[in-house]
Amino acid sequence: MMRPPWLMGFSAITQSAVAQPRISQVNPCPSIFYEEPHRDRVLAPAGCPPNAATLRFERQQQTSGSQGVVVPVYPMNGRGSVIQTPFPESRQSAMSDDKPLRVYATITPTAGTVDVKLKNNTNAGISYQAIGQTQARYLAGGQEFVLRNLPTPISITLVRQDGGLLKVIPTSTSNGTLAVSLDETTKFDDNQGVLRIQKDGQVFLN
Which domain of life is it from (predicted)? Predict the structure, then answer.
């Protein structure tokens, strides 16, 4: 039986409406920062509600009277479980009150934004995410990609999907882009998972 023309048009409109994809929203404050054990060991991203580690760090800064740098850590392995990374005394971290954070590079932001070129020099895929700006993405071995117009401050998480160790080497370039080399390492103390660019262009790793 043939449908009336008006009913066919209504059906087409309904199917079109149902077929519209749902746009996922980027979560700037992942729940992992508020779950054990990370809520007590890892600072929450800038602009997010403070967790226990952030509150403790702020109290330390008020007591010492010095300026601190918030460096959130969000490491995950390729199977999606959290890597519980210990903090040996030899490593510098935002939780340390007796050692200054090391500045690995300095870049000049343009109108408060920076470009970051990631180059994967490993044979493994690397998952990366600009917290609050992008979803988690995948960079194959030997490939490179440029993240453009990232607002500062910004944190970028970097994780090898095979669970291996990763050495991050940031370098300032002449054209104002931060070049980040992602290399394999066998030393646990060299393992890094978060690149943090401050509003003034200073680059920190953790």
Answer: Bacteria
